[in-house]
Design a protein that fits this description.
The complex is a heterodimer.
Chain A (H helix, E strand, L loop, with lengths): L1 H5 L16 E2 L4 H14 L2 E5 L6 E2 L17 E3 L3 E11 L5 E13 L6 E5 L12 E6 L12 E6 L1
Antiparallel strand pairs in A: 2-3, 2-4, 5-6, 5-8, 6-7, 8-9
Chain B lengths: L4 E8 L10 H15 L9 E5 L3 H4 L4 H4 L11 E4 L5 H14 L5 E9 L3 E2 L3 H4 L15 H16 L3 H4 L1 H9 L14 H6 L2 E3 L2 E2 L8 E10 H7 L4 E10 L13 H14 L4 H4 L2 E3 L5 H10 L8 H6 L16 H4 L4 H17 L13 E8 L4 E8 L1
Parallel strand pairs in B: 2-3, 2-4, 10-11
Antiparallel strand pairs in B: 1-8, 1-9, 4-8, 6-7, 9-12, 11-12
Helix pairs in contact in B: 4-16
Classes of the chains: A mainly beta, B alpha/beta.
Chain lengths: 157, 386
Amino acid sequence: MGLSERIERNVDLSYFEGKIPVNYVYTYGLGLEKFFNAIKEKGEFLASRCPECGAVYFPCRIFCERCFSEITRTFKVPGTGTVYSYTVCHLDMDGSPKKEPDVVGLIEVDGTEGAKFVHFIDAKPDKVTIGRKVKPVLKAKKDREGGIFDIKGFRQV
Amino acid sequence: MSQKVAIVGAGITKFVRRAQETGKELAWQASKMALDSCGLSLKDIDSVSLGTAPDAFDGVHMKGEYLSDGSGGWRKPYMRQFVGGGTGVFAPIHGWMHVASGMFDTCLVVCSEKMSTCYPHPQGAFLTIFDHTTEQALDPTLIWIFALEYNRYMETYGLTKRDIAPVSVKNKKNAMDHPSAQLPMDITVDDVLNSELLAWPVNRLDISPASDGAAAIVLAGEHAAKRITDKPVWIDGVGWNLDTAYWATRDLSYPRYVEKAARMAYDMAGIKEPRREIEIAEPYDPFTYKELHHMEGLLLADRGEAPQLLADGVTQRDGDRPMCPSGGALGVGNPISATGLMKVIEIFLQLRGEAEKRQVPGNPTCGLAQAWGDLMQVGTVVVMRR
């Protein structure tokens, strides 16, 4: 334990390098594949409501986590919402400063009885406020790939 | 113990190489099936025990938290545990503790695994379970270390690969009757011996596949169980044991840790003569030789004698001591934690007389399921009676 008090950088100790040599290929799953396909193909946002207990989920899911019922039907919501909370990120993953700070928002999605969704807000940090209305900004249809960045972010209106 | 514990319901998804479903969607499918099988709903469940193997398989850190909604953990006392490949039989032991302690009357036990997320193959994730200072640089794979154990087992008892390969023939054939099976096959011993050589003496058909899948059971305390079903299957003994992490220093011909786990479970269940009293078993069979190795550790065969029992047909479904009537990991597939629970479910169904085409004759009353894992050093055992 004594060494760690006198040596500040771990690479000044005797060491060897390692890594976990694996990559990952994730499936979207049955619920999210439907959600992202609707955005990609039609620019539509899908929520779902539990047929048993009425809980609303956004994005849509195939089962209700509260009562375990299967959810087969989805319904469209406009994708607009309200800023519920936000933060402004100045540093990168490794601790170095970002060129431009990112604004990350938690959006309460209209028509979902309070479901929330996290994404970037396209705004100057000093212009973001809780309670502001936002709308989603999608990529052009030809550029959409069926994933989270088909939504570029949300813009305050 | 505060109360006896029974299994009252069970569910399993299909085991497949690649599932479109996420791990949590698989977990929900199995859990929902288990609840439906005994007429319960999630609100009847007091606690949830999740078993799932290393996070690195799914590429999701804190996989227990990730799988919680599919496992019915929403706003419930929920715990994840894992002991590598032994997880699927440890999860019901863990759930048993929840109920036997008297803390809860019902517990949903769920095991879910999604190994297909690893690209190109889960061996990349397995590599870093080995000691990073002395072993990792040698590029060990799981096949590599079990090949060492397989070879030592043959050497100790004067066995050949031809003595061991029939395990694959038997289990893959048994799997033809299992609706969840990934690799059901009708093959010969020569097919096994002539399949692709991976790491001598392990050929392709000596080894279970990487799989996606989930399994779940419902546990209930004595009074609750009798309200829920006329056919409870009681967990009468549980045992688990861990050997040294310096795997290379062990006697590889005999799984002492399995024996210790088995003795713990037998003592609890009052079993004095396992070979007479355990009528049916699901020893963990990720490799052909492991079914035999584990039968010996479970005291269901003398050391080195299991291959003879296999040759004599004793371990066939219609033999005196059926082993892996489900088709096992070799036939049904091996989504790590879900495999062990699949084995528990097989014994549950067999003891209830509900195993359909897989049903062994003779109305068995007592059976066991066993799994094995961590760095090939943990044994987990559950003894069940109807």
